[in-house]
Amino acid sequence: MSASKPNVLLIHCHDLGRYLGCYGADVETPNIDALADDGICFERHFGTAPQCSPSRGSLMTGRYPHVNGLMGLAHGHWELHDDEQILPQYLAADGYETHLFGLQHITQDTDRLGYEYVHSEGNLYPGVSPSVHQVNRAKNVTDVVTTFLEKGAFDAPFFASVGFFEVHRVEEANGRYGFQHDLYEADEPDDVTPLPYLPDRRGIRQDLAEMHGMVYAIDDAIGRIRACLTETGLVDETLVVFTTEHGIAFPRAKGTCYNPGIEAALIVSHPDRASGGRRVEELVSNVDVLPTLLDVLDVPVPADLNGRSFAPLLAGDPYEAREEIHAEMTWHDMYNPIRAIRTERFKYIRNFWYLHHVYLPRDVFASEAGREVREAEAVPLRPFEELYDLREGPTEMDNVADEPRYDDRRRELAARLHDWMVETDDPLLDGPIPPGGFSSIMAWPDEAT
Description:
Blueprint: E1 7-13, H1 30-38, E2 40-42, E3 45-46, H2 52-61, H3 65-68, H4 87-93, E4 97-102, E5 117-118, H5 130-136, H6 138-151, E6 158-163, E7 170-171, E8 177-178, H7 202-231, E9 238-244, H8 259-262, E10 263-264, E11 266-269, E12 278-280, E13 284-285, H9 289-296, H10 311-315, E14 325-331, E15 335-342, E16 346-351, H11 362-365, H12 368-378, E17 385-389, H13 407-423, H14 438-442
Parallel strand pairs: 1-6, 1-9, 2-12, 3-13, 4-5, 4-6
Antiparallel strand pairs: 2-11, 3-10, 7-8, 9-11, 14-15, 15-16, 16-17
Family: Belongs to the sulfatase family.
Protein name: Sulfatase
Domain Sulfatase N-terminal: 6-299
């Protein structure tokens, strides 16, 4: 192992998508914007799923959810296959010291992850209890991270996964799911910019204004960590990766394969390996992040990963751009099987279950924003095929799957999506997929006992 290998800080949070100033959102995020200005910002980075555990599983394994086994939420009895390796395990084998701070949410068994040091308790699910909320808030996780950096009690190089609770909704006493505006510095609803894919209604503005407070908490945490890296002299030796797993917890975003549901931030910064403030427009997927990091760190990249390295984009070298990215959903708080393909111009979505038009996860359904639209979105039945011309209709409101002029395109993308499902051995091709833990939940009692 080369002594010149950098430390790696992988910082991630919940339900944020690209709702950041550096991605054009009307919210002040000066510290994250500064990270983008110093590093490289990927403008079209997407998660493999519009939900937490499956997308995070892809980030950590380099494989799609239906390949690594994590087709639903970790606290919903879904787990990675036993033989799956994750990023800290690859790096530990290369001599890295591995640390877990805050949330992870890809398994109920933290020991399964193989971290050498686990610095936070209750690091699975953000909605378990108020105490877990408190431990995993950005401020508190950052307190632990900065203390770790200041003490310098590690054998470099180290890998640290830093997970923040924000901006996850929380169930309140009245059954509403909100952003705990009493604990964060919320903005005024009249001052926020409406979302382009939702109607401009008071409840949506209220939720956005409250969410801003959590966004500010994340931004403050990033600023503190970066300042600590500078003060401890570690800034030149540390590769910082900031990313999110899927879109914000609003209708037509989280829980859907529309762009607001699968869009994710990705910023990579290192003085030598990823710098200059470049904006990268190529399509990339979070299934590509693991092979890219292994490539950058000169760790052998397994040939059987689904993702592909985009390390040349960090170096500014020639790169054969992706022609398409894929996204999927199978289980969340209900069965909702979807597979999708997105190209430069088009999005094709195949729905495999007869459900309402736009699926609203429980936390979105019971939010102020959800109440504003759920009668319109949750009542009509969805089509089995959706096709969107992203150049003509970037908000994905006009389904052109049945328009004759798009018939050839629909057939082509349907075939490409099917080929991808066959190539990756998608179990959905064999029929409906039972819930996580089905075999143990439905097993007959042992007659011997």
